[in-house]
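so my prof wants the structure for this chain in the C-alpha coordinates format not the other one, which i didnt know existed until like an hour ago. anyway here's the sequence
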Amino acid sequence: MGDYIWLRFFLQTLEEFSNIERWQSFFAILQEKGYHLHSYDTGSDAIIPELQTAMQEQNNDFSIDADGPLEFRIDFHPEEGYLQFSIEAENQFPNDEQGFAAYQSWLELLKEMYSFLQPLIVYQFNESRYNIEREDILARTYLNWLYDIAIYSPPLVETIGRERLLSAPAWRVEAFDDGAVLLVPEEHYYLPIVHNYTVVATHLGFHVPEPSDE
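here's what i got, hopefully its the right format
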Protein backbone atom coordinates (compact mmCIF):
# COMPACT_ATOMS: atom_id res chain seq x y z
CA MET A 1 0.00 0.00 0.00
CA GLY A 2 2.96 2.27 0.52
CA ASP A 3 3.60 2.10 -3.25
CA TYR A 4 0.51 4.19 -3.97
CA ILE A 5 -0.14 7.91 -3.74
CA TRP A 6 -3.70 8.94 -2.90
CA LEU A 7 -4.77 12.56 -3.40
CA ARG A 8 -8.12 13.71 -2.02
CA PHE A 9 -9.94 16.65 -3.58
CA PHE A 10 -12.68 17.84 -1.20
CA LEU A 11 -15.24 19.72 -3.30
CA GLN A 12 -16.93 22.90 -2.13
CA THR A 13 -20.40 21.33 -2.01
CA LEU A 14 -21.87 17.84 -2.22
CA GLU A 15 -24.25 19.06 -4.94
CA GLU A 16 -21.32 19.42 -7.34
CA PHE A 17 -21.20 15.65 -7.75
CA SER A 18 -24.54 15.65 -9.58
CA ASN A 19 -23.46 18.34 -12.07
CA ILE A 20 -22.95 16.06 -15.08
CA GLU A 21 -22.16 18.90 -17.50
CA ARG A 22 -19.29 19.93 -15.27
CA TRP A 23 -17.89 16.39 -15.26
CA GLN A 24 -18.13 16.28 -19.04
CA SER A 25 -15.91 19.36 -19.15
CA PHE A 26 -13.57 17.82 -16.57
CA PHE A 27 -13.19 14.63 -18.60
CA ALA A 28 -12.67 16.66 -21.78
CA ILE A 29 -9.68 18.41 -20.21
CA LEU A 30 -8.06 15.06 -19.42
CA GLN A 31 -8.82 13.70 -22.88
CA GLU A 32 -7.24 16.78 -24.49
CA LYS A 33 -4.12 15.96 -22.50
CA GLY A 34 -3.97 12.53 -24.11
CA TYR A 35 -5.75 10.45 -21.50
CA HIS A 36 -8.07 7.58 -22.37
CA LEU A 37 -10.79 7.33 -19.75
CA HIS A 38 -12.80 4.22 -19.03
CA SER A 39 -14.93 2.78 -16.25
CA TYR A 40 -13.02 0.76 -13.67
CA ASP A 41 -15.98 -1.57 -13.11
CA THR A 42 -17.00 -2.29 -16.72
CA GLY A 43 -14.09 -1.07 -18.85
CA SER A 44 -16.56 0.96 -20.91
CA ASP A 45 -15.57 4.26 -22.52
CA ALA A 46 -19.15 5.49 -22.00
CA ILE A 47 -18.38 6.90 -18.59
CA ILE A 48 -20.97 9.69 -18.47
CA PRO A 49 -24.04 7.37 -18.35
CA GLU A 50 -22.38 5.22 -15.69
CA LEU A 51 -21.41 8.27 -13.66
CA GLN A 52 -24.91 9.68 -13.93
CA THR A 53 -26.40 6.43 -12.69
CA ALA A 54 -23.91 6.24 -9.84
CA MET A 55 -24.59 9.79 -8.70
CA GLN A 56 -28.35 9.14 -8.70
CA GLU A 57 -28.01 6.12 -6.44
CA GLN A 58 -27.39 6.71 -2.76
CA ASN A 59 -24.04 5.56 -1.31
CA ASN A 60 -22.79 4.51 -4.74
CA ASP A 61 -19.16 5.34 -5.54
CA PHE A 62 -17.72 5.36 -9.04
CA SER A 63 -14.20 4.87 -10.42
CA ILE A 64 -12.50 5.83 -13.67
CA ASP A 65 -9.12 4.67 -14.95
CA ALA A 66 -7.02 7.16 -16.91
CA ASP A 67 -4.34 5.85 -19.27
CA GLY A 68 -1.99 8.25 -21.02
CA PRO A 69 1.19 10.18 -20.13
CA LEU A 70 0.59 8.82 -16.61
CA GLU A 71 -1.70 6.06 -15.40
CA PHE A 72 -4.00 6.78 -12.49
CA ARG A 73 -7.49 6.22 -11.10
CA ILE A 74 -10.16 8.70 -10.08
CA ASP A 75 -12.62 7.56 -7.41
CA PHE A 76 -15.80 9.52 -6.80
CA HIS A 77 -16.98 9.54 -3.17
CA PRO A 78 -20.08 11.77 -3.18
CA GLU A 79 -21.19 10.88 0.34
CA GLU A 80 -17.82 11.89 1.82
CA GLY A 81 -17.51 14.86 -0.54
CA TYR A 82 -14.22 14.11 -2.29
CA LEU A 83 -12.57 12.78 -5.43
CA GLN A 84 -9.53 10.59 -4.91
CA PHE A 85 -6.72 10.43 -7.45
CA SER A 86 -4.52 7.36 -6.97
CA ILE A 87 -1.30 6.48 -8.75
CA GLU A 88 1.25 3.71 -8.29
CA ALA A 89 4.36 5.61 -7.23
CA GLU A 90 6.96 2.89 -7.68
CA ASN A 91 5.82 2.19 -11.23
CA GLN A 92 5.15 5.76 -12.35
CA PHE A 93 7.91 7.58 -10.45
CA PRO A 94 11.07 5.43 -10.46
CA ASN A 95 14.08 6.72 -8.58
CA ASP A 96 15.80 8.33 -11.57
CA GLU A 97 15.62 11.46 -13.72
CA GLN A 98 12.72 10.13 -15.74
CA GLY A 99 10.79 9.37 -12.56
CA PHE A 100 11.53 12.83 -11.20
CA ALA A 101 10.24 14.43 -14.41
CA ALA A 102 7.11 12.27 -14.21
CA TYR A 103 6.55 13.36 -10.62
CA GLN A 104 6.76 17.00 -11.61
CA SER A 105 4.26 16.30 -14.42
CA TRP A 106 1.97 14.77 -11.81
CA LEU A 107 2.17 17.94 -9.72
CA GLU A 108 1.34 20.06 -12.76
CA LEU A 109 -1.68 17.89 -13.51
CA LEU A 110 -2.89 18.21 -9.92
CA LYS A 111 -2.56 21.98 -10.17
CA GLU A 112 -4.69 22.04 -13.30
CA MET A 113 -7.30 19.80 -11.70
CA TYR A 114 -7.38 22.14 -8.72
CA SER A 115 -7.89 25.14 -11.01
CA PHE A 116 -10.87 23.48 -12.65
CA LEU A 117 -12.48 21.91 -9.57
CA GLN A 118 -11.74 24.73 -7.09
CA PRO A 119 -11.91 22.36 -4.09
CA LEU A 120 -11.66 23.25 -0.42
CA ILE A 121 -8.37 21.38 -0.16
CA VAL A 122 -6.23 18.81 -1.94
CA TYR A 123 -4.01 16.62 0.18
CA GLN A 124 -2.12 13.36 -0.04
CA PHE A 125 -3.73 10.74 2.16
CA ASN A 126 -1.28 9.11 4.57
CA GLU A 127 -2.24 6.21 6.84
CA SER A 128 0.32 7.23 9.48
CA ARG A 129 -1.11 10.75 9.94
CA TYR A 130 -4.44 12.32 10.70
CA ASN A 131 -6.39 12.66 7.47
CA ILE A 132 -8.88 15.49 7.71
CA GLU A 133 -12.49 14.95 6.70
CA ARG A 134 -15.04 17.35 5.29
CA GLU A 135 -16.35 18.43 8.70
CA ASP A 136 -12.79 19.26 9.82
CA ILE A 137 -12.23 21.43 6.76
CA LEU A 138 -15.50 23.31 7.15
CA ALA A 139 -14.78 23.90 10.83
CA ARG A 140 -11.15 24.89 10.07
CA THR A 141 -9.87 22.30 12.54
CA TYR A 142 -7.04 19.76 12.39
CA LEU A 143 -5.30 21.73 9.66
CA ASN A 144 -1.95 21.40 11.46
CA TRP A 145 -0.87 18.15 9.81
CA LEU A 146 1.79 18.05 7.12
CA TYR A 147 1.19 16.02 3.96
CA ASP A 148 3.45 14.97 1.10
CA ILE A 149 1.40 17.18 -1.22
CA ALA A 150 -1.21 19.78 -0.27
CA ILE A 151 -3.06 22.55 -2.04
CA TYR A 152 -4.80 24.90 0.38
CA SER A 153 -7.73 26.96 -0.91
CA PRO A 154 -7.67 30.70 -0.13
CA PRO A 155 -9.85 30.47 3.03
CA LEU A 156 -7.57 27.76 4.46
CA VAL A 157 -4.48 29.75 3.52
CA GLU A 158 -5.80 32.67 5.57
CA THR A 159 -6.60 30.35 8.50
CA ILE A 160 -3.10 28.84 8.54
CA GLY A 161 -1.33 32.08 7.65
CA ARG A 162 -0.31 33.12 4.15
CA GLU A 163 3.15 34.38 5.01
CA ARG A 164 3.82 31.34 7.18
CA LEU A 165 3.00 29.03 4.26
CA LEU A 166 4.85 31.02 1.63
CA SER A 167 7.99 31.23 3.77
CA ALA A 168 8.06 27.51 4.59
CA PRO A 169 11.49 25.90 3.91
CA ALA A 170 9.90 23.29 1.64
CA TRP A 171 11.05 22.03 -1.74
CA ARG A 172 8.10 23.61 -3.50
CA VAL A 173 5.82 26.40 -2.31
CA GLU A 174 3.70 28.07 -4.96
CA ALA A 175 1.01 30.75 -4.73
CA PHE A 176 -1.83 30.47 -7.26
CA ASP A 177 -3.62 33.38 -8.89
CA ASP A 178 -6.75 32.72 -6.82
CA GLY A 179 -4.81 32.88 -3.55
CA ALA A 180 -4.40 29.13 -3.04
CA VAL A 181 -1.00 27.70 -2.04
CA LEU A 182 0.70 24.48 -3.11
CA LEU A 183 3.04 22.99 -0.50
CA VAL A 184 5.33 20.01 -1.20
CA PRO A 185 7.80 19.49 1.70
CA GLU A 186 10.27 17.16 -0.04
CA GLU A 187 11.58 17.16 -3.57
CA HIS A 188 10.55 13.66 -4.62
CA TYR A 189 8.50 10.77 -3.34
CA TYR A 190 11.65 8.61 -3.15
CA LEU A 191 14.31 11.28 -2.71
CA PRO A 192 13.91 13.15 0.60
CA ILE A 193 17.42 14.59 0.36
CA VAL A 194 17.54 18.32 1.01
CA HIS A 195 14.32 19.33 2.70
CA ASN A 196 12.70 17.33 5.45
CA TYR A 197 9.36 17.13 7.16
CA THR A 198 10.62 18.03 10.61
CA VAL A 199 11.96 21.42 9.53
CA VAL A 200 8.87 22.29 7.50
CA ALA A 201 6.44 21.10 10.19
CA THR A 202 8.28 23.02 12.89
CA HIS A 203 8.24 26.20 10.81
CA LEU A 204 4.49 25.91 10.25
CA GLY A 205 3.73 24.96 13.84
CA PHE A 206 2.31 21.64 12.64
CA HIS A 207 2.58 18.22 14.22
CA VAL A 208 6.10 16.88 13.68
CA PRO A 209 5.63 13.50 11.96
CA GLU A 210 7.37 10.31 12.91
CA PRO A 211 10.24 9.21 10.62
CA SER A 212 8.93 7.31 7.60
CA ASP A 213 10.05 3.81 6.70
CA GLU A 214 9.62 4.56 3.02
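also thought this was worth mentioning. The radius of gyration is 17 Å.
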